[in-house]
Amino acid sequence: MFSSSLIVAFLCIGATYAALPLPSYVKPCARSDPGFEACALDRARETIKHIVNGDRKYKIPVIDPLEITEIIVDNKGPEQAGIDIKIRNAKFYGLKDTIIESIKLNYDEKSMHMDVRLPRIELNGEYEVKGRVLLLPITGKGPLNFTLENAPAQFDTDWIVENIDGSEFMSLTNSRLHHVEPTRVHYDLKNLFNGDKLLGPEMNAVLNENWRESFKELAPPVIQALSTVIAGTVNSIAHAVEYKNVFPLNV
Ligand SMILES: *[C@@H]1O[C@H](CO)[C@@H](O)[C@H](O)[C@H]1NC(C)=O
């Protein structure tokens, strides 16, 4: 459905490499430990509580609320299919409550899989929309509220090791948040159809009644934005700390 291009303008997650120690709230696990994965799960849960507040030293923005200046989907497909959406000054609330259910980490293959659950994510922002959703024409501009309840999700990523001036750093590649499957989604797009008192509430009712289908059409750019942010956050630490200190053989 989407032959779209996505632009996510995110706060400067910089690729500046530095050889800092790990932040005090990130305790490494020893690769030689037979319980390495269990340790990683434990430490990731601990880390998330701290990281949501941001950390200037490691160029990590505040994650709850997470602010994204602009999320854009340009529909490059035919006029009658798809949708153009812009969300400005997007604010996500609730990432601090993310529950990490499990982690699979393969150090040799440089890949990781995570099962997570997002108990409640509320996205507020200013939307601009034009196109079709659920085959119905939609246009409008105004305040937006998307709220997801209790969404299991999966995060997969690979990483590469880069040599920067003789030191090794890890960089996430191929990161994707997927299978985000909320048990309910609420939509509130104010001022649809130029504030039409009849059509606006009607469209909101249709979106809410068919929340699962609308989610499939409207959520991909939002999920991709979140994915970029997760990878960016991990990279902020990974680019500040030498690889050998992220995954030490022994601690
Ligand atoms: C957004 O929608 C949710 C679910 O309907 C509601 O609980 C919340 O109060 C709304 N937020 C705002 C800012 O209106």
From TrEMBL:
Annotated family: Belongs to the TO family.
UniProt signal peptide: 1-18
Pfam family name, one: JHBP
InterPro entries linked: Haemolymph_juvenile_hormone-bd, To_sf
Statement: the UniProt record of this protein carries the keyword Signal: yes
An example Gene Ontology CC term for this record: extracellular space
Lineage: Eukaryota, Metazoa, Ecdysozoa, Arthropoda, Hexapoda
Gene3D superfamilies: Haemolymph juvenile hormone binding protein
Protein name: Protein takeout
